[in-house]
Design goal:
Order of helices and strands: HEHEEHEHHEEEHEE
Number of domains: 1
Strand order of the largest sheet: 2-4-5-9-8
Helix content: 25-40%
Shape: globular
Number of helices: 6
CATH class: Alpha Beta
Largest sheet: 5 strands, mixed
CATH topology: Muramoyl-pentapeptide Carboxypeptidase, domain 2
Radius of gyration: 22 Å
Distance between the termini: 36 Å
Length: about 250
C-alpha cells in the first residue's frame, strides 16, 4: 500500500513538473526589453549592422529588422537624455543598441578571415586586420549583448545633419578615443589638438548628457555608453533584433 503522505506529495509536485516544459531560458527572454522608438519617438535610427555600410560590409547575423531594442531601464534613462538634448536643439541618432550573441560571433568569424578587407579603407585603414583581436577592436563578448549598451550620436534639429564629432562611428583608431584632443573628465580641449575645439565640444555635449542620466562612457569609443546600473550584468542574450511580440510570457 502506498503511504498516503507520499502519494499526496507526488500529486502536489506534478503541476510543477509540467510547468517546467514551458520555461524560456534567460538568454532567450526579451520580456524586459522595449523597442526604443516606443519610448523615444523622436530618436533617429541608422542601424548599421542591419545594412551593409559597416566594417564587415554586409548585414550581420541576428539583425532581422532595422530597429533598436534596449532594457526598459536603459530606455527610460535614455529618454531623459533625449529630453535634455532636445531642449538644446538636438536629437539622438542610434547606430546600435542591443546586439545578440550570434552577431558578436559573426564579428569574430569575420575578424578571423584575414583576407576579407572589403571595408578596410572606410573603418580601419591604419590597422592590420590580424591585430583586431589583440588590440581589442573585436571581442568574443560584448556589453551590447546584455541589453543596456548603445552607440549613438547627435543630430542638429535645425540643419538635420549630424554634429561633427571629428570621426565616424566604428572607426578603429585612436581618433575615436574619448581623450583624443582633450580631457573628457574636465571637458577641456587641448589647444591645437588633432580635433578642432568645435568637434571636441560636440563630443562633450553627448557625453555630458549621457553621464548625467546614468550612463558610463567607454574610453576607446566616443559613441559608446552603458547604463551604470544595468539590470542584467551577467546575461548575454540570444534573441534576434526585431520588433518585439506583444503579450510575451514572463520568465518563470
Amino acid at each position: 500500500m502506498i503511504h498516503f503522505r507520499k502519494l499526496l506529495a507526488a500529486i502536489v509536485l506534478l503541476p510543477g513538473l509540467f510547468a517546467c516544459t514551458e520555461r524560456t531560458s534567460p538568454e532567450e527572454d526579451s520580456s524586459d526589453f522595449v523597442v526604443l522608438t516606443d519610448v523615444i519617438p523622436d530618436a533617429i535610427l541608422e542601424i548599421r549592422y542591419f545594412g551593409t555600410y559597416n566594417f564587415v560590409g554586409e548585414r550581420i547575423d541576428g539583425y532581422r529588422q532595422p530597429t533598436a531594442l534596449l532594457t526598459r531601464q536603459a530606455a527610460d534613462s535614455l529618454k531623459a537624455v533625449s529630453d535634455e538634448v532636445m531642449r538644446q536643439g538636438y536629437r539622438l541618432k542610434i547606430y546600435d543598441a542591443y546586439r545578440p550573441q550570434c552577431a558578436v560571433d559573426d564579428f569574430s568569424r569575420w575578424a578571423a578571415n584575414i583576407s576579407d578587407t572589403l571595408m578596410k579603407p572606410y573603418f580601419y585603414p591604419d590597422v592590420d586586420k590580424s591585430q583586431l583581436f589583440e588590440r581589442g577592436y573585436i571581442m568574443a563578448k560584448s556589453g551590447h549583448t546584455r541589453g543596456s549598451t548603445l552607440d549613438l550620436t547627435l543630430v542638429d534639429m535645425t540643419s538635420g545633419k549630424e554634429l561633427d564629432m571629428g570621426g565616424t562611428f566604428d572607426w578603429f583608431g585612436e581618433e575615436s578615443h574619448a581623450d583624443f584632443s582633450g580631457d573628457p573628465e574636465t571637458m577641456q580641449y587641448t589647444e591645437n589638438g588633432p580635433l578642432t575645439a568645435s568637434q571636441f565640444h560636440n563630443r562633450m555635449i553627448l557625453r555630458k548628457a549621457m553621464v548625467r542620466h546614468g550612463f558610463k562612457p567607454l574610453a576607446e569609443e566616443w559613441w559608446h555608453f552603458t547604463l551604470s546600473e544595468e539590470p542584467f550584468p551577467d546575461t548575454y542574450f540570444t534573441f534576434p533584433v526585431e520588433e518585439l511580440r506583444k503579450n510575451r510570457k514572463k520568465r518563470n
